[in-house]
Write a structure and sequence with these properties.
357 residues, alpha+beta
């Protein structure tokens, strides 16, 4: 499979280099990177491969796709410049022509950039993307996730309920989801195991300060299969941390508690701004506060009680196991790019957003 990916990349790069016009280049791009092209279909089919092949094949296919996209963009710039020069020579000089290069008309927001980068990592590991409604019921948001009726997150002060609210503990009560975890339950209702998904999307909580906003973004993951262990979770998150923060990163797990996982862990990544808590200037690292570790997410093995809610869909807790994890997309963006205040991501200040074009 990897040999085929390398051959596809070589053939496409040769055609890209041989394209003599932007129209011809677009045909090459569609042929090799379009929806029906072989390489994207290989990438979408990674989840169907044996587990021991997914990582290597997914990484190779993802790297080939990125290399081809970069080559197409570079060739397009060169061809567009030469075509413009030819038109300027052939046509009468027009002093009203816009500047070259043209000023940028827009760019992806840092949150969108980070979300897509995170999605690419997990797609390369064989996960699929799943989405669900942002307006949820208490059943999917709390009950089916093993959240007791006494949990503080169910209070009016911790959740945006859609009024009128007659009974906070009624499973039919409508609210804005507080996490993307409800999609995990919905996905298990739609598909029997094995199941490997990540769930990106907006969530809502009544918080507002330098590290919290009423609306923010999460990416959660769920893997359900036979013989899945905490070691699989650790390996998955280690691969993610190294892809996002650098190849030297390590991860550690600390015991914690979440209603929907058992055992539960908090996951830290080794600080990428210092060595053993000390910066290159010999000062205490302000990012990890001298601990050499940065908390990035919560995770754990799926609580068997959660599987009981979807047992009829093939999730017998005596036969399957799984792990789940969840992290804030804004937090990953802030850590990677050194953003000091979460609210900067939502101020729409051009001076800020243009730094990440």
């Amino acid at each position: 499979m990897i040999d085929r990916i390398e051959q596809l990349q070589q053939d496409a790069q040769a055609e890209i280099a041989a394209a003599d016009s932007t129209d011809a280049l677009e045909e090459v791009r569609i042929r090799h990177l379009g929806r029906k092209a072989e390489l994207p279909n290989l990438l979408r089919g990674v989840a169907q491969l044996p587990p021991e092949e997914r990582g290597a094949v997914g990484k190779a296919a993802n790297a080939a796709r990125q290399a081809l996209e970069t080559a197409v963009a570079a060739r397009e710039r060169a061809l567009a410049a030469s075509e413009l020069e030819l038109r300027l020579v052939q046509d009468r000089v027009d002093v009203t022509l816009p500047a070259d290069p043209l000023p940028a008309t827009g760019r992806l927001h840092l949150i969108t950039q980070t979300r897509r980068e995170m999605e690419d990592v997990f797609i390369g590991l064989g996960f699929n993307i799943a989405e669900g409604p942002e307006v949820e019921t208490a059943y999917y948001n709390f009950d089916a996730l093993n959240t007791p009726v006494t949990h503080p997150s169910r209070l009016m002060t911790d959740t945006f309920y859609v009024k009128p609210v007659e009974d906070l503990f009624d499973p039919r009560t409508v609210l804005l989801r507080v996490h993307t975890s409800p999609v995990q339950v919905r996905a298990m209702e739609r598909q029997a195991p094995p199941l490997y998904i990540v769930v990106p999307g907006r969530v809502y909580r009544p918080d507002s300060d330098a590290t919290h906003t009423p609306q923010f973004h999460q990416l959660e993951g769920l893997a359900v299969d036979t013989d899945i262990t905490l070691a699989d979770l650790q390996g998955t998150l280690l691969t993610f941390a190294r892809a996002i923060f650098g190849d030297e990163r390590q991860v550690r797990m600390r015991p914690h508690f979440f209603p929907f996982t058992e055992p539960s862990v908090e996951v830290d990544v080794s600080c990428f701004n210092c060595k053993n808590g000390v910066t290159a200037e010999g000062e205490r690292c302000p990012l990890c506060k001298g601990t050499a570790w940065i908390e990035i997410l919560g995770a754990g093995m799926v609580d068997p009680n959660v599987f009981q809610y979807v047992r009829e869909y093939g999730y017998d807790p005596e036969k399957v196991q799984g792990f789940a994890f969840g992290m804030g997309i804004e937090r990953i963006a802030m850590l990677k790019h050194g953003v000091p205040d979460l609210r900067l991501l939502y101020d729409n200040d051009v001076r800020f957003v243009e730094q990440f074009g």
